[in-house]
What we know:
- By secondary structure, the protein is an alpha+beta fold.
- The protein has one domain (about 1-20, about 30-285).
- It is about 25% helix and about 30% strand.
- It has helices at about 50-55, 90, 95-110, 120-135, 150-160, 240-245, 270-275, and strands spanning about 1-10, 45, 65, 75, 80-85, 115, 165-190, 195-220, 245-250, 255-260, 285.
- The strands form 4 sheets. Strands 1, 7, 8, 9 and 11 form a 5-stranded antiparallel sheet that branches.
- Strand 7 (about 165-190) and strand 8 (about 195-220) form a beta hairpin.
- The longest helix has 19 residues, at about 120-135.
Amino acid sequence: MAIVAIVLRKSKKWAHPVVAKASDKPAPVLPCIFCDRESGSEEHLWPDWVHRFIREHGIDLGGLRVQEGTRPEIIDDDLEKTINTVCHTCNNTWMSRIEDKNRSRFMLMLQNAPFTIDPGGMKILTEWAVKTAMVQDSMKPRIGNENFYTREERVAMREQLKIPARTRAWIGALDGFHLGSHGTDFTIEATKSDGGKVRIGTGCANTIYMGYFVTQVVTEHIYPEYQAFGIPEIQPPVGICDSRLIQTYPKVLKKAEWPPAAFTNGGPNGIGYLLHRWRQGEKVSMVTKDGVAR
């Protein structure tokens, strides 16, 4: 019998796009992360109307706390961050439709107004969360510009709004108005019977918060050679998040009342517990014929 455990690989609170200096050679235009067209649409991670709401209501959020990898954290005053990894067509068609379908719910969440979410509402909230997680993932600096979400998963999202396999999504509430996005990548390793370790997969957790609303999306990729072992989904440790999150995918309630008990800025119910939720996972068993992970 071998033991599988989460091991944190790297964590980022935000990632800027790479901007070429005047003396640099022009960077090649990469294809859209969702299709074969050229990217460069300057898509907002948070919808334009959210920024208008913030301005119209005089909400002072201060600056964005920005951290790339293990570099020191800085404060960026530009709250209206844009990304350029999608094309104009995707931005203005199916991505825009997802935003529009969620707008009425998001407007209530921006004002911390209570309402009931039915299964249909949970479905379209999940679609927005996964789409946004994929966009956020495309901004992370990686070796060889590799993204966690595969091209096949991103294309399936565009064509069918298909949620990737081994994906889970939750929503929750905050006790104050916030705007932010955090990403955590982790590896999934198996401990062999001889004590050695072997990497059997990777995972990505994205946490996006907007107003009084927060969502967390977690997707795991098990390497093909280990998929036949039936590795169960990795579970985070039991904690305060269990009573403060509503799962919207794949488990769906008949209805859910929003907001649930809110995360606070700090203290025993702090948002930090949600952001660090995937730093340490529950150990599970993986059984092979000879007790050794291959």
